Amino acid sequence: MANTTISASSAAPSIWRKWVGVVPFFLFAILFLILPSLRLFIGSFTNNEGKFTFDNILQLFEQQSILSAYWLSIRISAVTAIGGGIFGFLLAYSVTVGGLPKPLRSMLITFSGVASNFAGVPLAFAFVATLGRTGIITAILKDVFGVEIYKTGFNLYSFLGLSLTYMYFQFPLMVLVMTPALDGLKREWREAAENLGASQFQYWRRVALPVLLPSILGSMILLFGNAFGAYATAYALTGGALPIVTIQIGAQIRGDVLHNPGLGYAMAMGMVVVMAISLAGYSWLQSKSERWLK
Amino acid sequence: MSLRRFPFWSWIWYLLGALYFILPLYATFTFSLEMKRGALSFLAYEKAFADKEFWHTFGYSNLVAFLTILVSALLSIPTAYWIRLRLPQARRIVEFITLMPFVVPAIILVFGLIRIYSSPLNVPFTDITVIPPLTNFKVGTTLLLVAGYTVLALPYMYRSVDTGMRTIDVATLTEAAQSLGADWRTIMFRVIFPNLRSALLSGALLTFAIVVGEVTIASFLGVPAFGPYLFLLGQHLAYQPAALSFTSFILTWIAMGLIQLVSGGQGQTVGAH
Amino acid sequence: MAYLTLSNISKQFGDTVVVEDFNLDIEKGEFVSFLGPSGCGKTTTLRMVAGFETPTSGKIVLGGNDITNQSPNQRNVGMIFQAYALFPNMTVAQNIGFGLSIRKEPEAAIKERVQEMINLINLEKHADKYPYQLSGGQQQRVALARALANRPQVLLLDEPLSALDAKIRVSLRAEIRAIQKRLGITAIFVTHDQEEALSISDRIVVMNQGRADQIGTPFEIYNFPKTQFVANFVGSLNTAVAEVTDPANGLLSMDGVQFISAENMDNLHKGDKVRIAIRPERFSFAAELRKVNVVDCTIENIMFLGSVVRIQVKIGNTKFNMDTFNNPFLELPKIGDKDQVTCSKEAVLILGSA
């Protein structure tokens, strides 16, 4: 890069020179992102003899254990997306439009940044210490309220327990994504609505919520993808007892439990497809909301 | 909801949220203090920090974090700069690439990385080995680990750097520097880098937070990182893992707090892993 | 009985007094502007009429009703915002019909009224467009129609033109005034642009630091400013320090140059130092027409501003601006020339002690 002028290069191999600056980036992306993904992609269409086949993909939809794994992942992602979405929205609302003092807002934002990153092993331990058999809440519920939750069938290492744990990073993620959107609600809209005779409720129902809806939906889709792709927390908490897709893939990586590498790749690809759809949905809804909330 | 009315419901949501967030932390902390029977003490912390293995893995993770920050910064800065100044056409494809790690989460990424790099990487259709099987030797796996983490951290580092460049209007700064006679080296090191300090710091802290706690890629690649160590600890000990978990939370809090300080704004979001 | 009365209105935010002792009577169908710099309290006062702020003390009476503490959605006043504030998720037609649908008027009536309003603002072809598809000027017209559709008792406009391009500003303000006159609706217009206020208002309230410095017609405000602030803020002004030499005969001395003023000097004594002010357009060359005041001057600078030629002259030690209409056949003096300028004694204003 000897030449420092910004104007378009005049030398003959100009296309090469134009792209040279981004070559390292692309090289890296190819080597460590695209190639691995491609390997999985190709592998999902390969059978045990190394020939091209659609069988693996078909098996995704036929094999009961795989279908139920996907269904379980979808359920847990949906539950935590909706639950996390609603409560996260309410939290974000409280510190923006809701009118709580500024210091509370910065505390929430900082904490959300931390908590959304707190997934994995430490989070699992924290919830064991809270809701495990000897956890603090379990103890409080027994000593103070006389309720023995483990006798009623509750188990931290279950769908419900994992969902509760996932919420710890879903709420904050929703808060972080929705806060800018809520900030984008112009004060004048509420005033104009009031001025035209609307009550608070009417304003929310006819202006604010419709305007926020793309953001809310998009964020929930983001939460869905986030939960769908999570591995460490689930493994640390349940040790693989809950057969969600990521756990299955993890088992497949360690040892070919499916006895069919192609199927393992297909599962991975299925997951990528789900994530891609959710990312696309999120992006599309984001662009729609940006048009209104800029 | 103006200042006229007391925001009753807002307080309710906020306090409920605070309760939900604080309880697990409180539980972890109190649990970590109960190692000595009948008294509260920092014994769990003492024992945890006395373990040589802790320092070994923690040090390793820090090293990996540092390398990741270096690589992702070295990748992001010139690329973002180049795209801004010379190649806006590439913007969309680069941004698409920085979105891909969301579609390819850690577990999938490590799956692909292992399958590819457990055998030599050859130039297509030939026998010329470009990269030997990385998973076969320690330095190789560390390299792979850094590469994987860079992929995970790239969206945040790149976005941080790119936003920083937009804020300081790097194109105009470059033109000003050039009109005053600076060459590209001077521009890069005396104009661009210093002005990107806060963006770089943000990205670096976020990367640090991601890497040190990461366990998915680390455990599958079999490296002596902090995440797998903590997990193993949790299999047969009770108090030390709690102590270390709480410590890691405090560390992350410090890192995020620093980001807030440095960027003076929203900070960035990280997903689950 | 005035249609809208603001009596002794004050507004305090904590320790800061934003509006102080504001009194105003507005007749039905009148167009009144609140004019002043940022922070003078004009917007706060408007918002108190709208109900978005509550006065710390004082009363607001509209059409015989005390609305001081009424909530904004009960008042039936129409507000136009600087940032248009159109609801982004609704079309033009839906925006305009919003107030009527809140009142649960029948569909047919809403449709008819909306159509009427769309015709009023000349946006027939855009009825089904969304705000982001419209220009700033178009959006503001829709905002106007939306407020008017409700048949408000008063129209409140909060710097509605400040966000628009210069040319649109001029055409839209004329349009707003025309519609207001046609409908006979009472209006309060807040602006910091004196040309806007002067050109379309029946009366202007010039506000300064929370107080109404002067209330009058544009003609009165411009030609007979009551305070230094009003004189400075509205139109351009030459000011200088002068010494009173003969109060009975209105004589002053500025840098040794004698001026005669028509102002009342009953409260002044010989030797008092006062601030005098003369509008640039009140000067003319003595060669054309001699008025009471004739003074020597040196030509310092000549600036051609288009329809106006601004000539900077030095009288005594002070520079004065003199504005004269551009005339292609008039020979202008050259820089450095010595000349004589003249002005009437009514043109010499006294703005208080120096």
Question: In words, what does this structure look like?
Answer:
The complex is a heterotrimer of chains A (294), B (273) and C (354). Chain A is built from 13 helices and no strands. Chain A is mostly helical and 294 residues long. Chain B has a two-stranded antiparallel sheet. By secondary structure, chain C is of the alpha+beta class. At the A-B interface, helix 2, helix 4, helix 5, helix 6 and helix 8 of A face helix 1, helix 3, helix 4, helix 5 and helix 6 of B.
Fold blueprint:
The complex is a heterotrimer of chains A (294), B (273) and C (354).
Chain A: H1 14-19, H2 23-44, H3 55-62, H4 64-95, H5 102-115, H6 121-131, H7 136-143, H8 159-183, H9 187-195, H10 200-228, H11 232-238, H12 245-254, H13 261-293
Chain B: H1 8-32, H2 43-50, H3 52-85, H4 91-103, H5 106-117, E1 121-122, E2 129-131, H6 138-167, H7 170-179, H8 184-195, H9 197-213, H10 216-221, H11 226-236, H12 239-263
Antiparallel strand pairs in B: 1-2
Chain C: E1 4-13, E2 16-26, E3 31-35, H1 42-50, E4 57-62, E5 65-66, E6 77-80, H2 92-102, H3 107-120, H4 136-149, E7 154-158, H5 166-183, E8 186-191, H6 194-200, E9 203-208, E10 211-216, H7 218-223, H8 228-233, E11 238-246, E12 251-254, E13 257-260, E14 273-278, E15 284-285, E16 293-304, E17 308-315, E18 318-325, E19 338-343, E20 349-353
Parallel strand pairs in C: 3-8, 3-9, 6-7, 7-8
Antiparallel strand pairs in C: 1-2, 1-4, 4-5, 9-10, 11-12, 11-14, 12-13, 14-20, 15-19, 16-17, 16-19, 17-18
Helix pairs in contact in C: 2-3, 2-4, 3-4
Per DSSP, the total helix count of chain C is 8
Q: Encode the helix/strand succession of chain B as letters.
A: HHHHHEEHHHHHHH
Outline the low-pLDDT stretches of chain B.
269-273
Largest sheet composition of chain C: 6 strands, mixed
Distance separating the two termini of chain B: 37 Å
Shape of chain C: elongated
Task: Determine the strand fraction of chain B and express it as a percent band.
Answer: under 5%
- Strand line-up across the major sheet of chain C: 6-7-8-3-9-10
- The percentage helix of chain B is over 70%
Percentage of residues in DSSP E strands of chain C: 35-45%
Mass-distribution shape of chain B = globular
First-to-last CA distance of chain C = 41 Å
